[in-house]
Design goal:
alpha/beta, binds iron/sulfur cluster, 9% strand, six-stranded mixed beta sheet, Rossmann fold, globular
Length: 262
């Protein structure tokens, strides 16, 4: 089957019932990314579901972008696994939303947790709020609470879907709709709404009655862990409320882009 044929959204070579690994070379991924860029988010999701079947997962922190994808998946490929990371430091509103989503969509969300012994070691050494002390300790906290659990969760899949958008700026400006994820065993990373802006996201949320985190109604524009997130001021960019005390550092935890202490 040629690459172009895969993009016609026809029956995939690999069926969902087969657990056959699906991989793409970097050049194939580049070609597919070029073709997918002109496709709608729904078409990208359908293509991903047809291509990767049961070896595809959505990873979401239940921000509005992730909620758009989750809602589309519920209509296009409702059997797709949904995973999330419970860092142990999430806002109550996020936990409430997880419950609400699970009930409303009648799905089981696979919650991933940090390794408790690893966490205990760093907390005993550096303190429960170590992230305020230095950039390197903040990255260490993100590594143990987010990166390691995600690495585990993605170790047995061929592709994951994210809610990344170019509109989020910073390191996300060039996000393709599919890329090879070298941080996670070279699996495919798919971002169906990469070309959406905030207005499109909110329009979809409202038009489709999609549940969303109530913190957005209090001035939050990007929501992560409770101690590391705050509402933004007018004219600040959307991710400036994340790790707000850090100056000149990427507003990233390291899941999507490599963040280094030096
Ligand atoms: S966002 Fe903050 S609390 Fe959450 S894992 Fe990163 S440093 Fe730790």
């Amino acid at each position: 089957m040629k690459l172009g044929e895969k993009l016609k959204l026809t029956k995939p070579k690999t069926k969902q019932s087969e657990s056959q690994k699906v991989t793409f070379s970097p050049s194939e991924a580049t070609e597919i990314a070029r073709d997918l860029d002109g496709k709608s988010a729904e078409d990208v999701i359908l293509w991903a579901s047809n291509t990767f079947g049961e070896r595809l997962v959505l990873s979401t922190s239940f921000q509005i972008t992730g909620m758009v994808i989750l809602d589309m998946l519920s209509k296009i490929a409702p059997e797709t696994r949904v995973i999330t990371l419970d860092t142990g430091r999430l806002p109550k509103a996020t936990y409430d939303l997880i419950d609400e989503v699970q009930d409303q969509y009648d799905i089981t969300i696979e919650v991933q947790y940090p390794d408790s012994s690893e966490l205990k070691k760093i907390v005993m050494k550096h303190g429960i709020n170590m992230f305020y002390k230095s950039y390197s300790l903040r990255l260490l906290c993100c590594e143990k609470r987010k990166l390691d659990p995600l690495n585990n969760a993605l170790s047995d899949v061929d592709a994951w879907i994210t809610g990344l958008t170019r509109h989020q700026g910073g390191t996300r400006t060039d996000t393709p709709k599919i890329t090879i994820d070298h941080k996670h065993n070279n699996i495919a990373k798919i971002s169906p709404i990469a070309d959406w802006d905030n207005e499109m996201v909110w329009k979809y949320i409202k038009n489709n009655n999609v549940p969303y985190n109530t913190l957005y109604d209090q001035g939050y524009t990007s929501i992560g862990c409770d101690p590391c997130t705050r509402p933004i001021e007018k004219n600040e960019d959307d991710r400036s409320g994340r790790w707000w005390w850090e100056q000149g550092m990427p507003k990233e935890c390291g899941i999507h882009f490599t963040a280094k202490a030096d």
